[in-house]
Amino acid sequence: MIFLWMMAIPLAGAVALLVPADRFLRTGFAVRAFGTGVSGAVLLVAVSAMTAFDFGDTSRTQLQADWAWAPAIGLRFHLGADGISLPLVVLTALLTFLCFLYTLRHPPAGGRIRLLTGLLLVLEVGLIGTFTALDLVLFFVFFETVLIPMYVVIMLWGGDGRRAAATKFILYTLLGSGLLLAGMLLVAVNAGTLDMVQLAARHGSGVSRGVQIAAFALMAVGLAVKAPMWPLHTWLPDAHTEAPTVGSVLLAGVLLKMGTYGLVRVALPLAPDGARVWAPWLGLLAVIGIVYGALACLAQRDLKRMIAYSSVGHMGFVLLGIATLTPVGINAALFGNIAHGLITGLLFFLAGAVKDRWGTTDMDRIGGGMLGTAPRLASVLTFASVASLGLPGLAGFWGEMLAMVGAYRPHADLPRGAFVTFMAVAGIGALLTAGYFLRMLAKITHGPAPEPAAAAGPGAVVSAQEYAAWVPLIALTLLVGLWPKTLLDVTAAPVRALFGGG
């Protein structure tokens, strides 16, 4: 029931905003405060879910709600979480709350705050539903629910190129969704059930190898669009660059995880034979994405666009971990998901802060000397950058390192020579990642400030709302980086269960 409450609260909040403004929440600030309160309530419920969760048995599906939805065709409204999904549920609740908190002082340009607030709350419903659904059709319904709110957020509150970016986003993701649905139904029809718990427990038994190969290909391509995997990534840089700050934070922090979560939760357990056939190709495309993303970042002059392309590389490490089909690799992928959500969410908050002060994210126009003109902002940007490039002791390190360890010793049925090569290429990509982040820091935070100093004076002051949005992400990046056991202990048992290890 607890996950039902997590969805009912933001849905009720979104419906309440349909009441005319002359009767309810008459000012923009009141609407933003209402959204903050609703999302804060969801975060409190998420924390209560953590306290109710039995961390001694993380492989078991807990906190379930299970009702008949359409008995005639075997559909059930089945929700629950294990150690794979719970961290993503909490991350969703946290980032949504921080986005609302940020908008209290820094609302996006374009007005229509009631509509924006309602859309973000509906987006939260879809995200939590995706990570807790245990019926294939229910999973798909929530998966699709996310698309329209994000499309509208980009279309109405984005930058100058928002129409093209929003159109590309919706076309790519709808195409991927169609392939995903076809693959899931192919397995469900042959297995005779839509229940994801039952299907995972069977480990592919009852579904022929040929069907699994076809189904995994369909599901993997559909989910890879959302991940995003090279070469299906081209919607991402435009969407990130044009989206408002809160849209970019949620897109990078949570929406991209829907693709990689779906691979682990749906594609691998439903079609394990297909996974072994396609894993080398998945690994190949993952490492191409790692290197491509890093090289693209080196060529960027826009800060937001550089961070967007960095996601292609970082999610490449997540996909490489999944492709190894080993407990080490899958744990690396799940760890990388959370680390990327924390760090890249922080980076997009900082990119928004830079744009608020300089009026642009063009690094050439910003110039250097930010440490002198806006030292607190520059210091946090430096921290987020070194976390993203994988500095040991911070969250970004463990996912990338463990993914390469997994590639060194992949599943016994996979070609080890190819994966060792993938590991070496991924290592080169990690070095390039350090290169583009250090180049960015040298360009805008160090060196003499341009004259006149654009951010000198009041513009350099960090607001309380900005601190409130940044500090939890900084703290969690440190916590997970210094004590990776806190997250790995949660994911290890359910990952073993994926491979029949209980």
Q: Helices, strands, pairings?
A:
Blueprint: H1 2-16, H2 28-52, E1 62-70, E2 75-81, H3 86-103, H4 113-132, H5 136-145, H6 147-157, H7 162-191, H8 196-202, H9 209-226, H10 235-242, H11 245-270, H12 272-298, H13 303-323, H14 327-358, H15 363-366, H16 370-373, H17 375-388, H18 395-408, H19 416-444, H20 464-482, H21 485-498
Helix pairs in contact: 1-2, 1-4, 2-3, 2-4, 3-4, 3-11, 3-14, 3-20, 4-5, 4-6, 5-7, 6-7, 7-9, 7-10, 8-11, 9-11, 9-12, 10-11, 10-13, 11-13, 11-14, 12-13, 12-19, 13-14, 13-18, 13-19, 14-17, 14-18, 14-20, 14-21, 17-19, 18-19, 18-20
Describe this structure in words.
The chain has 502 residues and is mainly alpha-helical. It has helices spanning 2-16, 28-52, 86-103, 113-132, 136-145, 147-157, 162-191, 196-202, 209-226, 235-242, 245-270, 272-298, 303-323, 327-358, 363-366, 370-373, 375-388, 395-408, 416-444, 464-482, 485-498; strands at residues 62-70, 75-81. The chain is 73% helix and 3% strand. The protein has a two-stranded antiparallel ribbon with strand order 1-2. β1 (62-70) and β2 (75-81) form a beta hairpin.
Features:
mainly alpha; two-stranded antiparallel ribbon; 21 helices; globular
Short description:
With 502 residues, the chain is mostly helical. The chain has 21 helices and two strands.
Helix/strand-derived category reads mainly alpha
H/E element order: HHEEHHHHHHHHHHHHHHHHHHH
Across the major sheet, the strand order is 1-2
Q: How would you name the oligomeric state of the polypeptide chains in this document?
A: single chain
Helix content: over 70%
Cα distance spanning the termini? 26 Å
Specify the number of helices: 21
- Beta-strand portion reads under 5%
